[in-house]
């Protein structure tokens, strides 16, 4: 009996100590032998921006396919998916015209993704400032023939910047349709950032069915503040807007899937991933090249440390998160069609800043289990396990009862770069990227070992 | 009785709710009305590097004196302190000479602070690589006439980079004396950073009494790796080193002290501060301009929100932390001489990255009290209250039984910039700086309200 009692006491202790040691091994490996940073450099500098349907997106598909194959993943394959091909065309113009002096002033601007263009003749109209979609609906027909300037700000007092983004971004997503239904000619949106600077942020809009489609651009926050002052100072201020973007139908693209076959229950799946497409303005470094490269490192780390998972691990490079989510939807559709059993999916699409925790969506029991692992992560400064949330690409898996998670990096600086020309390789820190990869690998390891 | 019982239950609840509300007010104020970022811009861009004894250090004294006076601090005064004046002179040379081809190769180098110079004739000698002071002591007299190259690395697997720095920096601090005692001619030190790049990091050395003083420089990590390979490949590799730095005695400088007089116990003091001097290579933005500007914001925030403290708050800009600690020592000396009672001192000298917690030194009871406040800070992503430690400038107060604290920002990126030409205004994030100022202000508020 004494031996049995001892064994009972020893088992959990031993397990914990073993997990602690393995997790330290994973972090040490990333901090000394990671390839994430150099792989991200290649993706950003040799391939560059990867808008869905572009040749660069195709290059990224082939690059990551080869990369996972070279690391000894058991299978690497492409999952076909049709994606929208939106093209920007030549540089946009948003020109303020002073009706008294006839002087002009160019705003730092960028067309919103999925927007129609004005074409070469442009749009010239009086500009009306609003701070929300609610205000547009109050103004109604007064907006007919006008350019509507959405100047609602992200709330700087929200510590989680993603929450501030979530409240403000509806202007960018639906502002064009909402203004278009009252006969507005075009829409200008304040860029989605807390910073005051001269960098315009693109991002997708969604045209609502059966509503008029009008062109939309974003302008920098600095210019948004200046424009707002000018509107207050001068009646009937006009803007000339010219954009050449257009949607060119759909083209064939792919999710890239690398598998490490499970040793015990190969028919049960764990997913880890990010999205391979990006906007066309920068290099998609934080959004979401880093997420892709960290996800690949999860597989590479487990393989190279001899930690082959019990369940089958799928590392997925999702296509078309930015302006369609077609890759995420296709993955879920195929999983359902094949009746695959997914235990959990983990996404990284909030930048490659220092990891601070995980948000999740699942049962209370599952979330409590994840939270009980917090002590394993605290030595690595990862402390937040309470937030509810999932990544966009894995969210279509929700109805298949999959536990969904997103890694949460420090959110303070993400919207300095998001969807801009400033989202380049140089603004990703090597060490923070490696800590992120290790944090994801440790979580996948624990889920695989302990179940949910 | 019922009223009394209710009151008993209500008091702690009300206090907690009031503290929560006040702390939110403090964070909101910083995130919307902080002047820390623009003040730091002035300090970095209009004044620049502020080596002790330099005209720029004097400018920084006058600037911060005026700044605190303009904010309505009750008293702002200068505390005289003699500081060493070390000057770099013209650009250093560290030139590798290939004994076979006679080809040369320039290393990215910078003299260490407080080092003597080689003078215009320079030093030419064979270079010997070591990885620690222990190895120097093993080699002993074999180092006579040689240039000793300390190539010990910071341990990348330590999550707290300050801990990795602490282990490696003894080479920089004492390496010259330790090699000098065996007759070495000069010392080269690998820069103190986990990054592999081309930026040399300066920092102070300390010549031990009665030991020979020899010149010392740091080289970039990239060049340290390359030099190490070259030493392995070629026997009797020589280096020509030329430095023009020298110590020019002592000059008068100042700590700058801004006081907000306590409303209840004005003879009891709380200190918050950073150091005003910096190295000469960059702009001293993270080290420690940010710490100074956050500290001033602590006072400004409490004044402008009507949160005048019960105890007297001293905001202190310490002089000469980098190569002498004279300011910190003078402050403690004067406090002792005047018999002043200090309850607590809080320093920020670990950069202006996103705040994650506080280290502290005091009684168990005091530390437990601080830790019990963790829930107030968690909404702001500040979670770490366990580490033991203090800032350098306030550490001389220890023997006066003062509770010592240092704010702990995220430590991952500090040694990308520390003591280099890259520590400029642009690498400080506005929002992270503001969160740091709010975090310090909230802690000072709690200590003042609740005692220790």
TrEMBL record, chains A, B:
<keyword id="KW-0862">Zinc</keyword>
<keyword id="KW-0121">Carboxypeptidase</keyword>
<dbReference type="GO" id="GO:0005764">
    <property type="term" value="C:lysosome"/>
</dbReference>
<keyword id="KW-0482">Metalloprotease</keyword>
<dbReference type="GO" id="GO:0006508">
    <property type="term" value="P:proteolysis"/>
</dbReference>
<keyword id="KW-0964">Secreted</keyword>
<dbReference type="GO" id="GO:0070573">
    <property type="term" value="F:metallodipeptidase activity"/>
</dbReference>
<dbReference type="Pfam" id="PF04389">
    <property type="entry name" value="Peptidase_M28"/>
</dbReference>
<keyword id="KW-0458">Lysosome</keyword>
<keyword id="KW-0325">Glycoprotein</keyword>
<feature type="domain" description="Peptidase M28">
    <location>
        <begin position="255"/>
        <end position="442"/>
    </location>
</feature>
<keyword id="KW-0479">Metal-binding</keyword>
<dbReference type="GO" id="GO:0004180">
    <property type="term" value="F:carboxypeptidase activity"/>
</dbReference>
<dbReference type="GO" id="GO:0005576">
    <property type="term" value="C:extracellular region"/>
</dbReference>
<comment type="subunit">
    <text>Homodimer. The monomeric form is inactive while the homodimer is active.</text>
</comment>
<feature type="signal peptide">
    <location>
        <begin position="1"/>
        <end position="17"/>
    </location>
</feature>
<keyword id="KW-0645">Protease</keyword>
<dbReference type="InterPro" id="IPR007484">
    <property type="entry name" value="Peptidase_M28"/>
</dbReference>
<keyword id="KW-0865">Zymogen</keyword>
<keyword id="KW-0732">Signal</keyword>
<keyword id="KW-0333">Golgi apparatus</keyword>
<protein>
    <recommendedName>
        <fullName>Carboxypeptidase Q</fullName>
    </recommendedName>
</protein>
<dbReference type="GO" id="GO:0046872">
    <property type="term" value="F:metal ion binding"/>
</dbReference>
<dbReference type="InterPro" id="IPR039866">
    <property type="entry name" value="CPQ"/>
</dbReference>
<keyword id="KW-0256">Endoplasmic reticulum</keyword>
<keyword id="KW-0378">Hydrolase</keyword>
